Amino acid sequence: MRAVLTWRDKAEQCIYDLAFKPDGTQLILAAGNRLLVYDTSDGTLLQPLKGHKDTVYCVAYAKDGKRFASGSADKSVIIWTSKLEGILKYTICRVSKSWPIISSLHLHPVFPGLHKAIRVVATETFVVCRIIIYSCLLLRHNDSIQCVSYNPVTHQLASCSSSDFGLWSPEQKSVSKHKSNSKITCCSWTNDGQYLALGMFNGIISIRNKNGEEKVKIERPGGSLSPIWSICWNPSSRWENFWMNRENEDAEEVIVNRYFQEIPSTLKSAVYSSQGSEAEEEEPEEEDDSPRDDNSEEHNDILAVADWGQKLSFYQLSGKQIGKDRSLNFDPCCLSYFTKGEYILLGGSDKQVSLFTKDGVRLGTVGEQNSWVWTCKVKPDSNYVVVGCQDGTISFYQLIFSTVHGLYKDRYAYRDSMTDVIVQHLITEQKVRIKCKELVKKIAIYKNRLAIQLPEKILIYELYSDDSSDMHYRVKEKIVKKFECNLLVVCADHIILCQEKRLQCLSFSGVKEREWQMESLIRYIKVIGGPPGREGLLVGLKNGQILKIFVDNLFAIVLLKQATAVRCLDMSASRNKLAVVDENDTCLVYDIHTKELLFQEPNANSVAWNTQCEDMLCFSGGGYLNIKASTFPVHQQKLQGFVVGYNGSKIFCLHVFSMSAVEVPQSAPMYQYLDRKMFKEAYQIACLGVTDTDWRELAMEALEGLEFETAKKAFTRVQDLRYLELINSIEERKKRGETNNDLFLADVFSYQGKFHEAAKLYKRSGHENLALDMYTDLRMFEYAKDFLGSGDPKETKMLITKQADWARNINEPKAAVEMYISAGEHVKAIEISGDHGWVDTLIDIARKLDKAEREPLLMCAYYFKKLDNPGYAAETYLKIGDLKSLVQLHVETQRWDEAFALGEKHPEFKDDIYVPYAQWLAENDRFEEAQKAFHKAGRQQEAVRVLEQLTHNAVVESRFNDAAYYYWMLSMQCLDIAQDPAQKDAMLDKFRHFQHLAELYHGYHAIQRYTEEPFSFHLPETLFNISRFLLHSLTKDTPLGISKVNTLFTLAKQSKALGAYKLARHAYDKLQGLQIPARFQKSIELGSLTIRSKPFHDSEELVPLCYRCSTNNPLLNNLGNVCINCRQPFVFSASSYEVLHLVEFYLEEGITDEEAISLIDLEAPRHKRENKWQEITSNNSQTLRLDETVDSMGDDDPFTAKLSFEQGSSEFVPVVVSRSVLRSMSRRDVLIKRWPPPLQWQYFRSLLPDASITMCPSCFQMFHSEDYELLVLQHTCCPYCRRRIEEPSP
């Protein structure tokens, strides 16, 4: 640190106090009874101000810069405006203990204009105060004014005299005065303006609040023997920008209120004894042996106190002392802080101003004077200091703080706050602070060593570990000795002191081991590395000589000598080249071995070699950074500061007091190497740090230069897999023996987009086909045609095909089709036309193609079908003779007539036609036709499977009428299949089973409708018969969908209605054992009760009659639907389910069906009798007898005789007839079920010929003729098998 005198002036009287305007443009001095106003820029006296009658002791400027105040020995305080205008003087005396009043008013002669504006009237006292308080004001104390101070926030003015102090603000009507027990020598407000510290002549410090009430009292040792002469609160960082950001009074109020909320506004009253605090304070160590970060929080309010006991002390707002008293060895007259509080200025009886740290460590002298220094202040926000002396001298200094620092590779150590050392890792940005608590004079750093020179000693630090990122230092050695040196260098085991022309090598214990005497002044010294204890030093002298010295060798080695003085030196990484910056700002580079000057560059102030690249250096100067590689031209870019290191792509730059690592792309030198095709050197430069674009350019240049290794590394950097694959393929080809560089370069050019150059190289290397492939792949067909010329037609055709492919890919299908047709690629043309639905194009292509070209014709047919043009598809299939595809086409388009016609001509396609036809019929509910189709196709199993599924669906959906029909269809289908001997038994079983199910579901359909629907379509007798039929038929398992509850419920209700009470009771009893739906519950319970009131028998009218044995059968028949006497099965009507008067008979063995029918058709004549009379003729007489026991048939009917059977037998004895019996039968009385094989026909004889019975010729179900005719009229078909009446019987 050094002080430079900027300007000096001298007044006639002692300078007791001074104050800067907050913006630093003006300086106000108290000199005699005047105030002197100076321009701080050049020391010009702007204006003297006269207003006091006696010596002015103090002056203070308000923080807002609007006004300042002066205090004088004339017991008055004057408020001045910032324009140096107006003084108003009046006298204040105390008339009571509570408040003073204005007793007299005096106008200064310089303000005659105010005479008219102000009148003095006793009753108007306060009005006068209000008028004049905002212009200029004079306040009178009882004694001379010793000090004044403005509140930094509220602009409240504190004025102190020997016996009292007053507090005044523009808003107040009066001045608040407070008595003091001792003379007040100095005062200072806290940063927040809440508290005022008063320094007393008796050695006491009183801390008051804004109202003047004492909150803290500090009693210092020495008492009145150590009067307090100067005090000052430290500037706080939280108030640093407070006044700079102010724009108006409202903003000020808001900011002030915000800060008041953060800082306590009151303190508990307390009295502190400084002796007790000092006794408890430990003596601090002289240096901190271990490094630590400076993370401790700065105290908001610290009071610095200087007394004439020649001590400097620091106190907290609470009154507690910080640290111990610092001895000054002179009487201090003034104390002030720098704007940011980092330093303290002290002046006094030692006739100089001294600079101290904020902790009280003396750093040096600012300026020596010829008399006592009464006042000194720092210009706001600057390093300028003004000093006022007893002899009237005014000195204005600029403080220049020199940079004390050291650098080794990526570690930078520098001085901070004059007493601390901060070590910064330039790569990781880590920092560590070492507190030395003394002035740091020199710093040196090397590897894991750090040397710090203090005024009385040198400290040697070392790292805790060898980790490159370790930032923890510890003290290794202390050399307790005062050294004077210009430069300091540290090595592994030594320190080197530079003193003018002499170098001294000392061990860490302080023993001088070696000394070198130079011919001229040493201008630069640097450690260039080496083994521990044998490091080399690079030394530059003022006479231009450059030496290399080893610390273990007495002899210096002269490297070279130049004509100009050395300012900066550096040696390349391999120690083959030397860079020198001379006093003419020229950078010179030498070859160390040959002493040859390689090149020189102007405008340099510092230079550094790249530690990772031999041929690269950088130098700074003129606001530019210059990077030079080898002998190439210099690359410049703007940069402020000095270059001190160059490591890889990072350049370490010192600008003012900060060191920064600048990331500099090495693009320019890399391109310089590329221009000379020096690819490996360019790659080395790129490794130091270039952009991705630069890496790609390097890769491309190396690839074009066929330097594949460098190109491969560069493409790996930018992760370009495409080019890496190219390089790998070329390397593989080279391994296989290919040596044609033109071919390799052609591949490279094609990858880079240089297609014409690539084509030329392909042609030159004899690979025209590769050029053609390249052009076609790129869709450059015109270039391809030009390249091809009038060559091979095959290649031309191939080119057209590829062009068509391209047209197809770019969505130009029309052009693609035309090109494909011209190239003979019909398949691709057909594919595009078909995909776009161009039927006309397909027709043209199909008709132009020869029938031998099956593949494209088949594609045409496929697209015709797809585009719903089956006619053209059929034409195409016929053209190529593909009948099978034609059949499939007719089937798919359901053109059955064409398909059947084709099937007639070609029976081998019958299955291909009828199977899909049958499936289509089944899907359209045309099951009879579907069965015929299945039969024709020979797919019986499929027919059965389809019908079974349909039947199941009908049952699940409660369509029982349909279910009966489907089951009948199934049974007939099984009967057809049974013609196969291998499946006869199984199919006949299924036939009977399905016939039985069909009968059950046909009957249950009426029951289901009766129970589920609100209205019944059947007579009660019919429902009664059906429910009886179902009850007798459901002796075993109940089929799916048929409900016993519904059946019994119907039987119970109809039996009760028809008088079959016994049967009804039985039905109700059966229902009690079943799970009854809720909707039937009440009806069944009621019916069960009411049936008990009926007689326990059935109506005889309902009892069924067996027409074979004339036996009345019970309504509830345990044997089922057979006679209980003769076991003859009943034949029921398929509509009313009444027992029909039919008896089944069988043919004698040996009689065929055809013979039986012929015999029946003969119908032998019978004797006709009108009555029952019988004529009996004998030899002697002729008798006529009436026989009433013979029925209408008479005994002459042979069939009636066959109806007899053995009574009591449990076996059923069928009726078997002979030829004679058959001959006697009438054709109209016999009904025949003509079952197809393998079933036998069934014969039934009507015993009541007058009652007509009709049998359906399809399903062989029996009906009363009247019922059948009615049902046919309703449904136009058989109600059972749904055979249309107009259809012929099978």
UniProtKB/TrEMBL annotation:
<dbReference type="InterPro" id="IPR057411">
    <property type="entry name" value="TPR_IFT122"/>
</dbReference>
<dbReference type="GO" id="GO:0061512">
    <property type="term" value="P:protein localization to cilium"/>
</dbReference>
<feature type="domain" description="IFT122 second beta-propeller">
    <location>
        <begin position="405"/>
        <end position="659"/>
    </location>
</feature>
<feature type="domain" description="Intraflagellar transport protein 122 homolog TPR">
    <location>
        <begin position="666"/>
        <end position="1046"/>
    </location>
</feature>
<dbReference type="GO" id="GO:0035721">
    <property type="term" value="P:intraciliary retrograde transport"/>
</dbReference>
<keyword id="KW-0677">Repeat</keyword>
<feature type="region of interest" description="Disordered">
    <location>
        <begin position="271"/>
        <end position="297"/>
    </location>
</feature>
<feature type="domain" description="IFT122 first beta-propeller">
    <location>
        <begin position="2"/>
        <end position="92"/>
    </location>
</feature>
<dbReference type="Pfam" id="PF25295">
    <property type="entry name" value="TPR_IFT122"/>
</dbReference>
<dbReference type="InterPro" id="IPR036322">
    <property type="entry name" value="WD40_repeat_dom_sf"/>
</dbReference>
<dbReference type="InterPro" id="IPR056153">
    <property type="entry name" value="Beta-prop_IFT122_1st"/>
</dbReference>
<dbReference type="GO" id="GO:1905515">
    <property type="term" value="P:non-motile cilium assembly"/>
</dbReference>
<dbReference type="Pfam" id="PF25143">
    <property type="entry name" value="Zn_ribbon_IFT122_C"/>
</dbReference>
<comment type="function">
    <text>As a component of the IFT complex A (IFT-A), a complex required for retrograde ciliary transport and entry into cilia of G protein-coupled receptors (GPCRs), it is required in ciliogenesis and ciliary protein trafficking. Involved in cilia formation during neuronal patterning. Acts as a negative regulator of Shh signaling. Required to recruit TULP3 to primary cilia.</text>
</comment>
<dbReference type="GO" id="GO:0030991">
    <property type="term" value="C:intraciliary transport particle A"/>
</dbReference>
<feature type="compositionally biased region" description="Acidic residues">
    <location>
        <begin position="278"/>
        <end position="291"/>
    </location>
</feature>
<dbReference type="Pfam" id="PF23381">
    <property type="entry name" value="Beta-prop_IFT122_1st"/>
</dbReference>
<keyword id="KW-0969">Cilium</keyword>
<dbReference type="GO" id="GO:0097730">
    <property type="term" value="C:non-motile cilium"/>
</dbReference>
<dbReference type="Pfam" id="PF25144">
    <property type="entry name" value="Zn_ribbon_IFT122"/>
</dbReference>
<keyword id="KW-0970">Cilium biogenesis/degradation</keyword>
<dbReference type="InterPro" id="IPR015943">
    <property type="entry name" value="WD40/YVTN_repeat-like_dom_sf"/>
</dbReference>
<keyword id="KW-0206">Cytoskeleton</keyword>
<keyword id="KW-0853">WD repeat</keyword>
<dbReference type="Pfam" id="PF23377">
    <property type="entry name" value="Beta-prop_IFT122_2nd"/>
</dbReference>
<comment type="subunit">
    <text>Component of the IFT complex A (IFT-A) complex. IFT-A complex is divided into a core subcomplex composed of IFT122:IFT140:WDR19 which is associated with TULP3 and a peripheral subcomplex composed of IFT43:WDR35:TTC21B. Interacts with IFT43:WDR35; the interaction connects the 2 IFT-A subcomplexes. Interacts with IFTAP; the interaction associates IFTAP with IFT-A complex.</text>
</comment>
<feature type="domain" description="IFT122 first beta-propeller">
    <location>
        <begin position="135"/>
        <end position="400"/>
    </location>
</feature>
<dbReference type="InterPro" id="IPR039857">
    <property type="entry name" value="Ift122/121"/>
</dbReference>
<keyword id="KW-0217">Developmental protein</keyword>
<feature type="repeat" description="WD">
    <location>
        <begin position="49"/>
        <end position="80"/>
    </location>
</feature>
<protein>
    <recommendedName>
        <fullName>Intraflagellar transport protein 122 homolog</fullName>
    </recommendedName>
</protein>
<keyword id="KW-0966">Cell projection</keyword>
<feature type="domain" description="IFT122 zinc ribbon">
    <location>
        <begin position="1099"/>
        <end position="1143"/>
    </location>
</feature>
<keyword id="KW-0963">Cytoplasm</keyword>
<dbReference type="InterPro" id="IPR001680">
    <property type="entry name" value="WD40_rpt"/>
</dbReference>
<dbReference type="InterPro" id="IPR056152">
    <property type="entry name" value="Beta-prop_IFT122_2nd"/>
</dbReference>
<dbReference type="InterPro" id="IPR056838">
    <property type="entry name" value="Zn_ribbon_IFT122"/>
</dbReference>
